[in-house]
Amino acid sequence: MVNVLARPAAKRLAGAALSLIGLFSSTVTLAESEPTFKDPQPFEAQYRLEVRGWPGATITHRLSNEGSHWLSDMRFSITVVRGQELSRFSLRDDTAHPLLYSSSYSLLGVGDSYQLSESEIPTLDRQTALFDLSRRAGHENCTESTLCEIEFVDHKGRDEHFQYYVEKQLITDPTSMGLPDGEFEALEVSLIDIEKPDRLLKLRFHPDWPGLILSAVYQKEGSRETQLTLTNFNPNGGTAP
Questions:
Q1: What is the C-alpha separation between 220 and 201, in angstroms, rounded?
Q2: pLDDT per residue over 140-198, tens digit each?
Q3: Could you tell me the sign of the dihedral formed by the alpha carbons of 133, 217, 64, 208, in that order?
């Protein structure tokens, strides 16, 4: 029998991990001159997940093309806790449209699962939002003094509201993250929970691979709670099975 005291802790852990791996949708109005976004490219990546108070684990992330739509799939396992989040979405007029979202976690085989259909996602789901935000970051004037507004639906379809700003950082040693040699400017997006301003999520995206996370750090009251770091990248690993 599962320890009933351990189950809430496992649920919080899975929630923290899925909050990192399934992120946010942008509803910012674009400038009058529409930017040219990068086309999606299939890939597979592994991230090192570190949650305070728990052993480290690996998250596997696949972005694959399935003909008329794309699939973003993330999954992780920490000791007896497992989690997965995936989304199918299409691209029309350079805009992402969610088609289906699902997430689940389990502790020793006992847990919860959630699913949202297209009609239940008025904006974007978290996985589609991750892809969408990584494409748009850097194309809007989102600074620390001029914050942009974002909103998304969580795994239960509830609206969430955040603000964010974007900075660029020069990456000089990409091989340490499993990437090929060559300097490039990463896009760092800092997200602030409007209702909980003591929470901060910093994401770094690769400018040429929509959806690919270089790193993510979640802070609460100035202390690091969760960290995600890219450890391996395979540009040929995202083809549909």
A1: 9
A2: 888 999 998 878 888 889 988 888 999 998 888 888 888 888 888 899 999 988 888 88
A3: positive
Distance spanning both ends of the chain, measured CA to CA: 36
**Per DSSP, what are the bridge partners of residue 47?**
59, 230
CA 70 to chain CA mean position, Å: 15
**Among the listed residues 135, 72, 78, 132, the one whose alpha carbon sits nearest the alpha carbon of residue 102:** 72
Model pTM score: 0.81
Q: In sequence order, which residues have a C-beta less than 8 Å from that of residue 188 and are 6 or more positions away?
A: 166, 167, 168, 169, 202, 203, 204
CA distances from 164 to 63, 101, 109, 200 (A): 24, 24, 37, 10
Strands 159-171, 184-193: pairing kind:
antiparallel
Retrieve residue 178's tokens.
């499993």
Contact 28, 37 (CB under 8 A): no
204 CA to centre of own chain: 10
Q: Rounding to the nearest 10 degrees, give the CA dihedral for residues 182, 73, 203, 69.
A: 80
How many other C-beta atoms can be found within 10 angstroms of the C-beta atom of residue 190?
17
Contact status, residue 177 vs residue 152, Cβ threshold 8 Å: no
**What's the rounded Cα separation, in Å, for the pair 152 and 124?**
6
Q: What is the rounded distance in angstroms from the CA atom of residue 98 to the CA atom of residue 30? A: 20
